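Backbone-to-sequence.
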């Protein structure tokens, strides 16, 4: 999802006056772990200018606002696009936030489905009844 968002908001837009490299795209990463019943998913970008891309050149978008906008898209496999392009480069492109929120929503939905299935199995009469 982070790569899809980077492409949608940066690399697949009309070029502007700066030279595009693939450095930002190559700097995207993700990891996940399960520890003590806790699922941790981390999505990140190590490019030194990643926060400028994520929140806008003028800091127009706060991390909390980015999370809210990303959550509003829901579980659909769609990036969050806020108008950033090569020519409109000061706008935010919260690709990393959207990917992290998307992963969280998918995990919650999967866990809810498992719990719902287990609850349904718990109310079924057993063969001994």
């Amino acid at each position: 999802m982070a790569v899809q968002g980077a492409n949608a908001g940066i690399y697949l837009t009309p070029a502007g006056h700066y030279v595009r490299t693939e450095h930002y795209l190559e700097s995207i990463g993700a990891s996940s772990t399960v520890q003590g019943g806790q699922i941790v998913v981390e999505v990140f970008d190590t490019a030194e200018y990643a926060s400028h891309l994520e929140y806008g050149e003028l800091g127009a978008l706060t991390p909390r606002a980015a999370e809210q906008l990303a959550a509003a898209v829901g579980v659909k496999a769609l990036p969050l696009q806020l108008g950033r392009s090569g020519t409109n480069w000061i706008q935010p492109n919260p690709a990393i936030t959207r990917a992290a929120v998307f992963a969280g929503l998918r995990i919650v939905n999967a866990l809810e489905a498992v719990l719902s299935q287990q609850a349904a199995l718990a109310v079924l009469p057993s063969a001994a009844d």
